[in-house]
Write a structure and sequence with these properties.
alpha/beta; 2-enoyl-CoA Hydratase, Chain A, domain 1; two-stranded antiparallel ribbon; 8-stranded mixed sheet
Length: 305
């Protein structure tokens, strides 16, 4: 056999080997991708129970509402668990989330599991569920709303600063730290607070099936332990997530062996949301200034993650 023939044979062998290893490499990449996506496929294509974690301060959240709308229409999701650890937040944030959860509840069973705290707007969203469970030591209740301001005009006088405010009417931009809080402004503000408060209590009356007088008596702003809340009809039972799953199985024939999959919300384009929600308890004074409007919030100064 000539030298040239040997060269040709060797080249063909080398080419076959390169082709083989290229195929092996491609298959390895495909296998790695499939392995990485395996958990995702399990959660999307198989029956499951979804879990929504509400942790920290509650604010308006379009992405969360869209995720819940998808959950409502997903036939593979057999039930929703709301896991709450929140002292509340803005009234509109709580109300928006409450409405979104009620839409889910129209399509499938929803159960709430309260963590360490589920107060104020945190309680509002909790009672969107068909069944509410808390730990004995959960801090809940704090049914009410609050709007806070400060009058710094006296301090400004002492340091020689005189604010100048030009506005179209005497009730514009009231309350305002740069002006004394007039009686007319106070009456208007109290009227707004009263209206928001009535809306909150009406939700409690409807969802907890309480007499109006009882609901207003309980809704004086105080907090309750989980045991006290159960005794007063504000929640259904003392327990944990395993008890929620048992309730779903007993009352809605939901398979108690289904996996519980967290709802993942991609905040890549809005990273500030997670920052506000989870860091508020640690850096409250500066963060609290970002919460505009009427709040439904339980003493966040004492709130810890």
């Amino acid at each position: 056999m000539s030298f040239e023939t040997d060269m040709i044979i060797d080249r063909r062998r080398l080419k076959r080997r390169l082709t083989f290893w290229r195929i092996v490499g491609v298959l390895a990449v495909v296998a790695a991708v499939l392995t990485a996506l395996a958990p995702f496929d399990l959660s999307v294509n198989k029956d499951r129970i979804a879990r929504l974690e509400v942790d920290g301060i509650i604010v308006d959240d379009r992405l969360r509402e869209e995720a819940l709308a998808d959950i409502a229409e997903d036939d593979k999701v057999k039930a929703l668990i709301i896991a709450i650890n929140s002292p509340g937040g803005t009234f509109t944030g709580g109300d928006s989330l409450y409405q979104s959860l009620r839409k889910v509840a129209e399509k499938k069973p929803v159960v709430t599991v309260m963590g360490g705290t589920a107060a104020s707007a945190g309680y509002m969203i909790a009672i969107a569920a068909d069944y509410v469970i808390a730990s004995a030591g959960t801090i809940t209740g704090s049914i009410g709303v609050i709007m806070q301001t400060a009058d710094v005009t006296g301090l400004m006088d002492k340091i020689g600063i005189k604010p100048v405010v030009v506005k179209s009417g005497h009730l514009k931009a009231q309350p305002n730290p740069m002006e004394p809080f007039s009686e007319a402004a106070r009456r208007v503000t109290e009227g707004i607070i009263g209206d928001f408060y009535d809306m909150f209590v009406e939700i409690v009356i409807e969802r907890r099936n309480l007499p109006k007088s009882t609901a207003y008596e309980l809704a004086d702003g105080r907090i309750y332990s989980g045991r006290q809340a159960a005794a007063n009809g504000l929640i259904d039972a003392i327990g944990r997530e395993s008890d929620a799953i048992k309730w779903l199985a007993a009352n809605h024939n939901v398979d108690d062996q289904l996996p519980v999959i967290d709802i993942k919300i991609d905040y890549e384009d809005e990273p500030w949301r997670e920052l506000v929600g989870k860091s508020l308890g640690k850096a409250l004074f500066s963060e609290r200034l970002r919460l505009d409007g009427v709040l439904s919030l339980w003493h966040p100064e004492g709130y810890l993650d």
